[in-house]
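Exercise: predict the fold of this chain.
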Amino acid sequence: MCSLKRHHSQSSLDESKSKRKCRCSSVEKDKTHAQTEKFKDIPSISFVSSATCCAVSHKQIYELLKYAALGRCNGATQPSWCRIHHQKYLSSTVVIVLHGINQLHFYRFYLQFRHLRKAFRHRLSLLPSPSSDIITTILGENYISISRKTTRSGEQNTDIQACSSATVANESSDSPGTTIISNSDPIVQKYGAEKQGLTSYLVSEEEMKQYKYPLTDCPGFEDFIHTGCTGPVTDNSPLFGLDCEMCLTENGSELARISVVDAGGCCVMDELVKPKARIINYLTRFSGITRKMLRHVKTRLKDVQDRLKQLLPTDAVLVGHSLENDLRALQMIHHNIIDTSLLYPRELGQKFKLKFLAQAVLGKVIQCRKEVGHDPSEDARAALQLAQFFISQGPWKVAELNLEDTVQRRVMNGRRPTLLDKSQHQGPLIVQEGSSLQQNIIAPVNKTEVLNGSDLIFDK
């Protein structure tokens, strides 16, 4: 009996364990089913086993983009080297091509690519392009823009139209490469694509208020005097470059030096100025001003104001970089202004530095003498030439320089720790580096979604 009892008890125990296992198994199956249901409609990409170890061709990239944009219902077929799952739920496809960067380079600078590593799971090598124009190689001669729209009923419509939002423009013979300019480019958005006269690039009244330019009807500028330039401004009005250097005094920032250059780049005014209040810091590193330079200076702010009023014609246009600071130091009001920090706009309201613009646009190196500070006549001349370049070439040619992409390239070269900040990522980018500062492309497509499983492709 005892043995039987023990046997009976053991059988009951086994039966109880079996029931618990069944219940646990059922719960696990429910969880697995729930997860499957949760992710079943999420687009993803998988690869044929040989694709991950072999380089892909430009034709294969085209297969991927075509199927992702059109889908099976429009006659497109799955790529031969990969599979796109749940294509109909796809909102956007992001493919980044890093020209001149191989896998070895990527892993060598692994930390600098952390944002790309988070956004893109797959990294593949790309076969060499038969042409320097990589966009034309992938998409063909008739470059088109494919946009997908989803109706409220869930049906998808595909619009294929001539690419008006992004135009392919070839660089000049001395800077071969590919440039894509989007209508969302901040320069094209602000000024349009057509070349215009200088009056179209004057700082507007709204911008003057926004950036706190000295204005007659604004508080805080009651004691400021006007330059007297009240004549009508035309496209033939003279340009004058202006730059000032300041020192820190007991009253705050005060004028210590002023430089003015005419349209030919000749310096027509270069004066040291004795601040009214006691100087606390000469700011030599930036201003270049020292105690010795100002020791015997008798010129005061009013003297400079009077001379500037005599120098400028009634229709003069002042040019400078963040000129509101110079006018505040001068305690003067002037309405006809071209500000190069606003003339060359950036995304998200940021500004390019004058030193960067001079090098990227004009090919000139300025502000390199750190021990003696800035040369105001050099800065005034650089700002003037930047304005003259913009006016003579027009917004479209300036946009072709891809200044924002040049900044990204410098970041990628290790000048700063981050490569691509998420707050600045505007969507699909196709990037090709060239051999000079102006030889690269960037094509924002105003999409912020990133496909789970998109490809980061290296050009061999």
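Check your answer against the key: The longest strand covers residues 239-249.
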